[in-house]
Amino acid sequence: MSVRELDLKQEPPCTSGLGNYLWSDPPDEKKWADCVHCGMCLESCPTYEQTGQEQHSPRGRVHLIKSVAEGKLQVNEQFMDPVFQCLDCRACTTACPADVDVGGLIEEARGQIRQAMPLTGIKGAISKFFLHDLFPHQNRLNTLGGLMKFYQKSGMQKAVRKTKVINIMPQHLVDMESIMPEVKEPVKKKYKDVKVIKAKGETKKEVAMLTGCVMDVMFSDINESTINVLTRNGNDVVIPQSQTCCGALHVHAGDRDMGRKLAKQNMEAFKDFDKVIVNAAGCGCMMKEYAELFKEDPEMHAKAEEFSEKVEDISKFLHDTGYEKPKAEMNTRITYHDACHLAHGQGIRQQPRDILLDIPGVDMVHMPNSDRCCGSAGIYNITNPEMANAVLESKMENVPDDVEMISMGNPGCMLQMAMGVQKYGRNQKIVHTIQLLDWAYQKEDRVKEEKE
Amino acid sequence: MRTKDRVKSQDQHILNLAEIVGGSRSILYQKEDLLAYDCDGFTIHKHLPKAVVFPKNTQEVAEIVKYCSENNLPFLARGAGTGLSGGAIPLNGEIIISMVRMKKLISVDLENRRAVVEPGFVNLKLTNSISDKGYYYAPDPSSQYCCTIGGNVAENAGGAHCLKYGVTTNHILGLEVVMPNGEIVEIGKDGIPDAPGYDLLGLITGSEGTLGIVTKITVRVLKNPEGKQTVLAYFDRVEDGSQAVSDIISAGIVPAALEMMDKTAIEGVEAAAFPVGHPKDIEAVLLIEVDGIAAGIGEQIDQILEVCRKRNVREVRAAGSEEERARWWANRKTGFGAMGAISPDYLVQDGVIPRSKLPEVLSRISQISGESGLRIANIFHAGDGNLHPLVLFDARIPGESEKALEAGSQCLKVCADVGGTITGEHGVGIEKREEMRFVFTEEEIAAQTEIREVFNPHNLLNAGKLFPSPSRCAEVKKEMKAQAIS
């Protein structure tokens, strides 16, 4: 079923609400019942760190979300502010002694807000363009990627920067433009006619791969590296062409209907595989939480839970199934940034570090508060630039001076950190963990060839 | 962070206060924002403040206080809002002065073993900032990850390691305080301990924010102990565990910490985010830490193991690594919050008893639990007899909050009856106002409120806390609780 067809199937209007939540799929009472208001989450929260205001803390947000259900608050602009200022970084779920799912509550509350107050005007148009007209459509993204490629290759980028035409854009977009990675051919397109990318040597396993939307347009070389690393370690790789955007950006924005549609499409696209490998922390985390979207549909809920079991981050997959240790010396000093949706969202902290430390000549320097959000948070840096910049500044203060690279496992973080490096006059290269492993393999092969 | 910088209010007081703190980013006045401030870690009473202001420095605090005082507006100071007795709840619709943006570490003077912090500085951050040089700040309330040192001073906070090192008041060398009329005074200037004259530092520390607002704090910092070891002991009978606690102290050992959790508490911490695999069928676990000169540690540990074995311990062992030790402590220190995993609400009490009465008091608490039909978990600093019965309840069930309050109060009565008292480290706040009568006569309470009047004559600062209103009898007390709950 295509997204278009699904679009036509409207969900029935809700009749049963919860307090002042009047729509279906309201925040889940069971989630806040665990919160005893102890406040252990406060210091983990980047927006509380910045503002010192408790409505911008996890505990405060849970309290407000609960208050709407109790009828003490309305779903209105004032309620929207704290709920949408949340970065969705999930650091509070790591800090919480009672495992309160604050992130889940926030997303459910956003769903209610978006139904109560649909975005209108220019904001609505921009949101609709990104979330409905762009991200779910790989071909359009590719076109955009092509345009960006043209922008870079044709000399237009140079011209725009030189003529200062760029100065008419808002500052945060200027910052973003300046770190735009070089756009290459998306792997989904490249392998369109290849059913199975065969393992090098003996096949041990067959895995499917999510190419992602931002990842494949902006960082197709990371997807390429992921394929190289998987095939080198005995995995046949399949890229199902009917896969689509994971829906994380939609769910973060409160568009849960679209999230459900995309989830259904992906569950269908990957149904014949035992493993779905993801190299973007945000996408992996979302796909592991699809069941959350189907709380009111037991059948889909069960299916989603089953599907989520198959989803795995590349670093965990390699770590658990074993991988060849590279032999070439990389001779570089690096540091590692924990993407929120890997560390807090999926509990993956040690695996990527182990992979990096297995590369000969990699010297890893500890980054203080490495699991603190960088402020990227999906498209938060576009919707809340001021807060995103404040959070980025505090992140950059923790990046050690004497490293050449910052490694991580999420494309959103990579763009944001690249912006941080540029903005604060640093000189680190931003790399994906898997890229570094792939480069080590490639170097090993080159050395071998030269010898022969 | 809202981008609109204008304060949209019809209330002249709000506009004037906004002026003092420098605009809309430093004041909250709309109901949706204020709701996050209607209670602290004590959730049974809730009340909306009139506004919350965020001063950046002492001068602003003084101006706010002066304004409130001149305009007869009740006000109070709030840190991270992790207090457990309701000390920061705006009972009278106060202006809340949030101290969290005053969060600088002003100076560290290791030679003289002291540091100066602003009140919003987080407790654990002090230790983290000096640990690489081999120093630490001793008072360690379980909320130390996020509670502020200003709040610690107000409540005279304790913690697991206060058995050996003392509570907050033993670590305060100097304070800068904004008095309720807006005057700024310094007490214990230059951080020289034991200044002549009345012990005003001692009076302000633990005054629960009723005498003044602390804006700068000079604290004592300590050198890290050379050695440290932690022992975990499981008991099949609470009596054996309690007896082991007494025996350890009687043997002349002063552990840095001596903590105990009972079966219900263990169920909570094991169901929550930091489980360590305590067996489900034991009745009590002890966590015993000794520190000091490295050479003496081994001998003390042997003694402790010996004592535990004599008291029929099921299993006892020392931590095999720093990592294991850290896990044991994370499990213990997140204990209160962990109750959320087994109960929607809890009420924590804070009684102190002579150590020798431990088995008797625990069995009476268990009786209270049986009679009220509410589960009571016990997590406590056994070494100094500071009990924390956690009454588990569900506020959504009509009548259960009242039952919980009553059960909590009965626990305190038991503590008072065996020669103990009603609070060790959480403060009286709103929660234990009436229970003050268990330990003080009407005259003693009146004498203390007279002291308050010297500092806070119009009672605008944090009114209604710490003491029961004079001449209120039991019926009024009941009515007050009913009101508070509704």
UniProtKB/TrEMBL annotation, chain A:
Residues 26-55, 76-100 form the 4Fe-4S ferredoxin-type domain. It comes from the Bacteria. It is an enzyme of class 1 (oxidoreductase). PROSITE patterns: 4FE4S_FER_1 (PS00198), 4FE4S_FER_2 (PS51379). InterPro entries: 4Fe4S_Fe-S-bd, 4Fe4S_Fe_S_CS, Cys_rich_dom, Glc_ox_4Fe-4S, Helical_ferredxn. GO terms for molecular function: 4 iron, 4 sulfur cluster binding; glycolate dehydrogenase activity; metal ion binding. Keywords: 4Fe-4S, Electron transport, Iron, Iron-sulfur, Metal-binding, Repeat, Transport. The keyword Transmembrane helix does not apply. Its EC number is 1.1.99.14. Component of a complex that catalyzes the oxidation of glycolate to glyoxylate. This is Glycolate oxidase iron-sulfur subunit.
Automatic annotation (TrEMBL), chain B:
InterPro entries: FAD-bd_oxidored_4_C, FAD-bd_PCMH, FAD-bd_PCMH-like_sf, FAD-bd_PCMH_sub2, FAD-linked_Oxase-like_C, FAD-linked_OxidoTrans_Type4, Oxid_FAD_bind_N, Vanillyl_alc_oxidase_C-sub2. The keyword Flavoprotein applies. It comes from the Bacteria. Its cofactor is FAD. GO terms for molecular function: FAD binding; oxidoreductase activity. Keywords: FAD, Flavoprotein, Oxidoreductase. Residues 45-224 form the FAD-binding PCMH-type domain. This is Glycolate oxidase. It comes from Cytobacillus firmus.
